Amino acid sequence: xxxxxxxxxxxxxxxxxxxxxxxxxxxxxxxxxxxxxxxxxxxxxxxxxxxxxxxxxxxxxxxxxxxxxxxxxxxxxxxxxxxxxxxxxxxxxxxxxxxxxxxxxxxxxxxxxxxxxxxxxxxxxxxxxxxxxxxxxxxxxxxxxxxxxxxxxxxxxxxxxxxxxxxxxxxxxxxxxxxxxxxxxxxxxxxxxxxxxxxxxxxxxxxxxxxxxxxxxxxxxxxxxxxxxxxxxxxxxxxxxxxxxxxxxxxxxxxxxxxxxxxxxxxxxxxxxxxxxxxxxxxxxxxxxxxxxxxxxxxxxxxxxxxxxxxxxxxxxxxxxxxxxxxxxxxxxxxxxxxxxxxxxxxxxxxxxxxxxxxxxxxxxxxxxxxxxxxxxxxxxxxxxxxxxxxxxxxxxxxxxxxxxxxxxxxxxxxxxxxxxxxxxxxxxxxxxx
Length: 434
Description:
single chain, 27% strand
């Protein structure tokens, strides 16, 4: 393992991190993250293809969007049907509060919004924050409209200490009773929230047939620290990886003589198990890769050869060592902010990395001149998981779990080293180039 950079972090080019901050702020939902990724790929020459259309075998950059997931790939000129893939895997969703089917509720003269908890969110981090509302609404004709009300609209108020004198000895939140945000005063009227959202989206409320809406903290991402060496912001898990994957794919699409077909696979629903048609457990990635093989004149044998030579880097955030809780970490593995991307290892296959994957990742980092670190959970702590093991098992693809080390994972506002997103992107470029 190489050492952390010795030079002061402020000497790094912050252009990538500045752009990440813009991406985070503009992506309050998986649907917005996908739309923003697609816009950036379009500028790099990629073109959207529809799943319902016939595909051809032409070279160039292409992408497919399904809900909150995007799969993008670049076919080099003259690529054979059995050409292997190099895949960067990530996910677009983050833990948050999501609007229920009957959202209008209230009590004691307060108007509230009924929400359901999504993923393993840190509940207390949503208290006393100014919250916006974002996602998509679906009209009766089936057309989806993105919505981003990026101003203070809702708030989940915490009980005053005068009414809970023991709160600092241990906050206990009832997930149903205590997490419903307020958004005004007065009587509750069915349809008020969706009418408000429809007006913000510029559509008739009577035309709205469905919605996938969620709250988000409206505070902008920001540099933190005396030397601005840290970055605080929302949804870093896992939009750091989505953003880096888009940047890396766009960069390698200009390279001549690629030996692999570079791919970005950004899935939805990772935070609740990936079991959906847009999650890593679904058929989307396999379908796209197979159709690309067949569109270039390949058969099953070509697909089998391509998959056998394919490697995926599953890029997701991991835990930096916490200065106030160092005992919760493995004593010999302490990833640090701005120490470069982390290799994530778990012998029980919560991560898909093995020794061969370690060598492959180390080679990519060495090629890029990027320092890297290793993460493993303490034996007395349960280990989280990623899309890595799912991808490996579902598609028979060699997979390596990596990411950026952060603090406050699953908080409404997370924290990382300001240089690490840039270092991750450079490592991904080297990996995709092969």
